[in-house]
Amino acid sequence: MSQSTAWDIPEPLPVDSAPVPEYGTGSLADLLPTLAAGLAVPGMTAAIEELTPADRNCVFLIDGLGWEQLRAHPEYAPFLTSLLGSSRGGTGRPVTAGFPATTATSLASVGTGLPPGAHGLPGYTVRDPATGELMNQLRWQPWTDPHLWQPRPTVFQLAHAAGVHAVQVSAPAFQHTPLTKIALSGGTFLGRESGEDRMDLTAEQLAGADRALVYTYYSEVDGAGHRFGVDSDTWRGRLSQVDRLVQRLAEQLPPRTALYVTADHGMVDVPFDEEHRVDFDADWELRAGVALLGGEGRARHVYAVPGAHDDVLACWREVLGEQFWIASRDEAIEAGWFGPRVEQRVYDRLGDVIAAARDDVLLIASDREPKESAMVGNHGSMTPAEQLVPLLEVRS
Predict the structure, then answer these.
(1) Averaged pLDDT of the chain
(2) What does residue 295 show for φ and ψ, rounded to 5 degrees?
(3) Is the peptide bond before 74 cis (omega within 30 degrees of 0)?
(4) How would you write the chain as a 3-class SS string?
(5) What is the rounded distance in angstroms from the CA atom of residue 346 to the CA atom of residue 116?
(6) Is residue 221 within 8 Å of residue 242, measured between CB atoms?
(7) What pLDDT digit, counting tens, does each position of 335-388 carry?
(8) Contacts of 375 (CB under 8 A, 6+ apart)
(9) Which end of the chain is more exposed for a tag (fewer CB within 10 A), N or C?
């Protein structure tokens, strides 16, 4: 066996070694179609075969609560922990978020029942081919017509048209956001400020019809993770709070109801040092040939200047290839990162080069993204800590 030398060039991570989400059998995009199929909504397919139909269905999405983080904190979430064995139809297994594992992408996957390559929200920020600018798909800046950006119907709209009582119970501030319009609209939106009021109203709405599909949401776990990290007392306090909310809802479920508790992504804490946080804005090699930097620290869309695609791909693989899966747009599509297919209207939104973190590293941009670069907890990639989310079940 030959010995390594200082002149050896490390091999980049193979694109096909990334753990692709379970699109079509066990991803967030498969949840609502499975529930709607059980409610006899036309055109819906029961893709998650482990789930059993119910007359009344409730999805409680806890932003930022990954499978690994929940399992690591049983003392702070005793009720949720008691449900771990119920996940994914009693198999005790998680489902996958989808790539990238980020809120805008995941909520669109949940609400439309489509993977990112079909619904067209493939990241935190992506290039708008019509303008050449970066589009923030969470904050919807700069403005673009939501229904042109995402024209497909939501599962709630299809369920409502089929006579199912479709309801979203969330914070009032979310009612008129573009993301809600294109991902979660259909039926009735009911806004309540407190988590307790949301749980009580959700239970009332479930009881109000023989066939129901009700969605509710809690964002504070994610916010605490970003600001303080998942290894913080603040994060653990938010986990305890939502644990009590889930129990409050579970104890009020009307007969013939299935409650599913899930999340849009997990999270990892990234240390604040140069080894773990690579600064794009301070690295001339990574900046060379790059016109726009999209995505987020653990899931980057890289848009090259015309003619520089191959050079950017080679450079990024050389500099980051041991810690990130680095793929060209077509390689990522072929590997299935965004689902089994990418629609033509979505194709040019994807980066010429796509970088997904494997290790506990972050590609920050301290000048152009100061707030995002200062976050403790981060997500976006395909590691188990980010990608795996619970699908806990309570039946009445």
Answers:
(1) 96
(2) 75, -145
(3) no
(4) CCCCCCCCCCCCCCHHHCCCCCCCCCEHHHHHHHHHHHCCCCCCCCCCCCCCCCCEEEEEEECCCCHHHHHCCHHHCHHHHHCHHHHHHHCCCCEECCCCCCHHHHHHHHHHCCCHHHHCCCCCEEECCCCCCEEECCCCECCCCHHHHCCCCCHHHHHHHCCCEEEEEECHHHCCCHHHHHHCCCCEEEECCCHHHHHHHHHHHHHCCCCEEEEEEECHHHHHHHHHCCCCHHHHHHHHHHHHHHHHHHCCCCCCEEEEEECCCCCEECCCCCCCEEEHHHCHHHHCCEEEEEEECCEEEEEECCCCHHHHHHHHHHHHCCCEEEEEHHHHHHHCCCCCCCCHHHHCCCCCEEEEECCCCEEECCCCCHHHHCCCEECCCCCHHHHEECCEEEEC
(5) 9
(6) yes
(7) 999 999 999 999 999 999 999 999 999 999 999 999 999 999 999 999 999 999
(8) 226, 227, 297
(9) N
Cα-based angle 46, 52, 53 (whole degrees, multiple of 5): 75
Per the CB < 8 A criterion, the answer to whether 290 and 281 are in contact is no
Separation between Cα atoms, residue 150 and residue 39, nearest integer Å: 25
In this structure, which amino acid lies at residue 96?
T
Q: How far, in Å, CA of 241 to CA of 372, rounded?
A: 25
Measured CA distances, 262 to 83, 147, 160, 181, 316 (Å): 12, 26, 22, 21, 34
Checking if the pLDDT of 218 tops 70, the result is yes
- Angle CA 366–368–369, to nearest 5: 65
Both tokens of residue 50? 């482990």
CA atoms within 13 Å, Cβ hemisphere of 46: 13
- Residues facing residue 326 across a β-bridge: 355
Nearest alpha carbon to residue 166 among 132, 206, 122: 206
Q: What are phi and psi of 293, to 5 degrees?
A: -115, 115
pLDDT at position 79 is: 98
